[in-house]
Known about the structure:
Layout: H1 13-17, E1 20-28, E2 31-32, H2 35-49, H3 52-55, H4 60-70, E3 76-83, E4 100-107, H5 113-118, E5 120-129, H6 144-155, E6 160-165, E7 170-173, E8 177-182, E9 185-188, H7 199-210, E10 215-217, H8 223-227, E11 230-235, E12 239-246, E13 249-250, H9 258-271
Parallel strand pairs: 5-6, 5-12, 9-10
Antiparallel strand pairs: 1-2, 1-3, 3-4, 6-7, 8-9, 8-11, 11-12, 12-13
Amino acid sequence: MPRSWTKLSLFDYGLLYGYGLFETMRSYNGVIFRLEQHLARLFKSAEILGIGKKLAAYDLNKACHQVIKSNKLTNARLRLTVTAGEDDIVPNPSTCDEITVFIVARRLVPLPSEIFDRGFTTIISSTTRNSHSLIATLKSTCYLENILARQEAKAAGSDEAIILNEKGYVAEASSSNVFIVDQETLITPSLKSGILPGITREAVLEIALSHGIKAIEKDIKPEKLLEAEEAFLTNSLIEIMPMTYINSKPIGTGKPGIITRRIASVYSELVNSN
């Protein structure tokens, strides 16, 4: 459907209250990478929001592929959004009759190799993540906290913002998961830190396991970022992005590290083998 034909109710709960979920995915040569994992995460979150049964009526796998095909795309970014639907202006999702589901896709132009060669610069955000909040584990349309952190990074001239939780430990970045390398060991915050269980994060942990790289999930103090030998960020669009500076100070040599490059290389093989 052309963009000009689309309509969204002014009473949609996704618009009024941020009561919704979304998944951002990437297709390679017409194949959506780890689509089943993305949908599994979405359905799990939908159950928490009380819209799981309604969502189960949709063949989202088929719909995602139809969007790719209809738009004649091969390498693309997709966003699948689900909300509780529309009802009165009083917040009561149980009264919404039908959920809202839509998928958009755009041709994806990968970031230039120069970006990966220099890596992302980051800051520690003033935004704090509540590790006890259920919302922290959901990829919800209530994305304000992440956007504020990202704006803070842009205002500081950086690419990304690292968000700490209420205990002072690293949670995640505004739109990506965080990994560091310490004594040749891959370390990433645990799910209990108040992070989104990233699909790319999961893939990296699998790569580490299958390639003899020790990987652990544990609390990371912010000062460990500077003490790390190397670090990187992950999400479906940027894949494996080296993190080379934080608060204007270099991480390790200030250049992408050996283990980061190794994991990025294996990940590239993985996404292109489907």
